[in-house]
Amino acid sequence: MAKQDRAIRTRQTILQAAAKIFEERGYQAATIADILHTAGVTKGALYFHFQSKEHLAQGVLHEQDQRLTIPDRPCKLQQLADEVLLHAYRLQTDPMVRAGVRLTMDQHAEGLDRTGPFLRWSTICRQHLEKAQAQGELLPHVNPAVTADTLVAAFAGIQSMSQTISDYQDLQTRTTHLLQHLLPSITQPPILTTLDLTPQRGQHLYEEVRDRLATVS
């Protein structure tokens, strides 16, 4: 068990180092040597867990989605909004998430499959919207798949604009504005008035999920 715990810690150390380098330099400019130096591990240890720089990048892309799960909400549109607001907060505060977004949006990352995060987010949003539709929360014209793709694309643009203008400092406010503009076009009016879309909600959600994890642990 001690050996397994050590391997898990080593893998996490490598991923954190890779996230730092990918965020700072982008995929093309990052090197295995840079990541090794930052992680403080041997080349053998790194290649035991990751076969290449591409595998490291995929590890970072996958890691950003792990561990934090929004509790089930009776209102599925609130749950959808919570997913987006929590991600915005984590993007401000979690280097792993920032690195994952940098990789996802990096159009110069030749040879790296960047479709995973977009497809995962579209699937998550579509599932929430389908449940919202089944509960009568959506307006009749709404197509959950089209709306999910539109929300993901719009949020990607908001992230990029916030990163460029303020290094993500205004991202929670911009995310609230996005939801306030998008949701009225798809939501039944009585449901819309119940939704909490405030910029502070992302941090509150993070603390809620963190406390639940601590209780389980």
Automatic annotation (TrEMBL):
<dbReference type="GO" id="GO:0000976">
    <property type="term" value="F:transcription cis-regulatory region binding"/>
</dbReference>
<dbReference type="InterPro" id="IPR036271">
    <property type="entry name" value="Tet_transcr_reg_TetR-rel_C_sf"/>
</dbReference>
<dbReference type="Pfam" id="PF00440">
    <property type="entry name" value="TetR_N"/>
</dbReference>
<dbReference type="InterPro" id="IPR009057">
    <property type="entry name" value="Homeodomain-like_sf"/>
</dbReference>
<keyword id="KW-0238">DNA-binding</keyword>
<dbReference type="GO" id="GO:0003700">
    <property type="term" value="F:DNA-binding transcription factor activity"/>
</dbReference>
<keyword id="KW-0805">Transcription regulation</keyword>
<feature type="domain" description="HTH tetR-type">
    <location>
        <begin position="8"/>
        <end position="68"/>
    </location>
</feature>
<keyword id="KW-0804">Transcription</keyword>
<feature type="DNA-binding region" description="H-T-H motif">
    <location>
        <begin position="31"/>
        <end position="50"/>
    </location>
</feature>
<dbReference type="InterPro" id="IPR023772">
    <property type="entry name" value="DNA-bd_HTH_TetR-type_CS"/>
</dbReference>
<dbReference type="Pfam" id="PF21935">
    <property type="entry name" value="TetR_C_45"/>
</dbReference>
<dbReference type="InterPro" id="IPR047923">
    <property type="entry name" value="ArpA-like"/>
</dbReference>
<protein>
    <submittedName>
        <fullName>TetR/AcrR family transcriptional regulator</fullName>
    </submittedName>
</protein>
<dbReference type="InterPro" id="IPR050109">
    <property type="entry name" value="HTH-type_TetR-like_transc_reg"/>
</dbReference>
<dbReference type="InterPro" id="IPR001647">
    <property type="entry name" value="HTH_TetR"/>
</dbReference>
<dbReference type="InterPro" id="IPR054126">
    <property type="entry name" value="CprB_TetR_C"/>
</dbReference>
